[in-house]
From TrEMBL:
Region (Disordered): 1-30
InterPro entries: ASCH_domain, DUF984, PUA-like_sf
UniProt domain ASCH: residue ranges: 55-178
Name of the featured protein: ASCH domain-containing protein
Transmembrane segments: none
Native source species: Vanrija pseudolonga
Length: 184
């Protein structure tokens, strides 16, 4: 899989996500998470009764909404978190077969995804194919690097973990297994 020569990303005002500000979000809406999980379980009785973790993409409302829309449209089929995030939160890394309930920024359950593959690698080893699979922006590796560099800088601010080209990234590929009903 091709990678491009490393060029230190810079914050670019033309890429909205790189200049976003972190904003607090409410916890997941337990009732909507349980309702969505129960609907999925009705067709998949082998899954556990307890819902899996529920979370939203990104650290701000506009980016979270955009990523959720990309997932629901089938364009975004992966996400990349820093390994440091999992370590700092004392959370296990995702594994193939894991389920997650994806919410909107306000915590309302929107879909259920199942992890299909997890690759842990340095940030500078993310490939053009991986960036395209993540499906954000123009799908390019340059866009991926700029947006994720800025995101990791916000996420890891004050933790003592520097953002660098060697930062370990947890690249999680997934499939949507249960869309939320649409009320239009």
């Amino acid at each position: 899989m091709p990678t491009l020569p490393w060029v230190e990303p810079t914050v670019d005002k033309a890429i909205p996500s790189t200049s976003a500000q972190t904003e607090p979000s409410p916890p997941a809406d337990t009732a909507s998470v349980e309702a969505l999980w129960d609907a999925y379980r009705a067709s998949n009785p082998a899954v556990p009764a307890t819902p899996p973790p529920a979370w939203h993409f990104c650290d701000n409302r506009p980016d979270a909404a955009e990523c959720l829309a990309l997932v629901l449209a089938g364009r975004k089929r992966a996400t990349a978190s820093s390994a440091a995030f999992f370590a700092l939160q004392n959370e296990p890394l995702p594994a193939p077969g894991d389920h997650s309930v994806v919410t909107d920024f306000d915590g309302t359950a929107e879909c259920i995804i199942r992890t299909t593959r997890v690759t842990v690698l340095p940030m500078d080893q993310v490939t053009t194919e991986m960036a395209a699979t993540e499906g954000e922006g123009d799908g390019s590796l340059e866009y991926w690097r700029a947006v994720h560099w800025a995101y990791y800088a916000r996420e890891l601010a004050g933790t003592g973990v520097p953002v660098s080209r060697g930062l370990e990234v947890v690249f999680e590929e997934f499939e949507v297994v249960w869309p939320a009903p649409r009320h239009e």
